[in-house]
User: Fold this.
Amino acid sequence: MERFILFTRIIVRSALPRLRAAVYAALRTLNGSQNVYATGSGQTASKLQQLNLTPRVAVHTNGTWYPVLRTDNSTDYLFILSRDSDSRGHLTTGKRRPLLHYQRRGNTTEIPLHVAANQTVAFAFSNELWSEIETPYLHALRVPSNVLDYNYSTSCGLLLHTSTDHCNDCNFQLSNGTSYYLSLDSTSLTSNLQRNTTHHLDTLVFWLDIPGLKNASGLGYYSSFFSWPPSSAYNVDGAYLTFPNIAQGIKVTVNGHDVEPLDFTNPRVDIGPYITSDSNEVTAMISTLMWNHIRSIYDEIEISEIAPLLSDLLPDRMGNGLIGEVKIIPYVTTQYMI
Assistant:
């Protein structure tokens, strides 16, 4: 162990355990070595920084993120899971696209990221992906706060989708030093979806609060209509449809067209290709757990003529349904050939 300590830097996390005297003495000796450092819980990253030891992946955030780096042949994969931060990624949808907003500082790449609670984002770094994913030679160093999303193709270039809200930092800067300034008018449109069955909802509430649905489980279809464009005074090119966090999953159609799969931890989709002038219909299908229904018939359930055994009381009913605010966010498209 002495030779191992001599040529290795060691960080001991948290306090020394109170074990048997011999083990405790060995740990005290280890902790007293010149290149062994003791830290408290949650302080390992700061100690590594003090020692000028740079990890391959570092996260700076006001929430709790868990990064995992994996290498497969010539590709490095970075997975980031957010537990409690507030609202970008398409891991659950399988959608792939180039990363266009980052900065290079020496040998490091800094990526600004906005992640929803319980959302997982995946990045792939490889020189072999150019043939699979259309990627420009330039990237953005700075993106205005009113940019909702972007798309890129070699035929259409870079398409920025910017909201119609006023922006105080509307400076779009590319890696070749070129800057673009955006000035937009302000408008907003909010739509609460209604369930298109015998139940008509003024607000989105739990099924528990709807007469006759306390014990309901299964599929729920929410439908609503909205007029487009929101105002003749504004020149808009499309809109994003956003939903609150969905526990079990969601499928959306606009005017009968299936939209792309949604990440149900941060459900948002571009509906610009599907909306038309005048009236538009949005239908959202959500699934629920079967527990509320099972709970209502629990006394009738038998397994080999024996009632199911539970050590505790039955869990309460679950708040099924689409809960929260559904928004339609208009955007303006700005094209850059890069």
About this structure: The chain has three domains: 2-50, 56-135, 189-336. The longest strand covers residues 219-228. Residues 21-31 form the longest helix (11 residues).
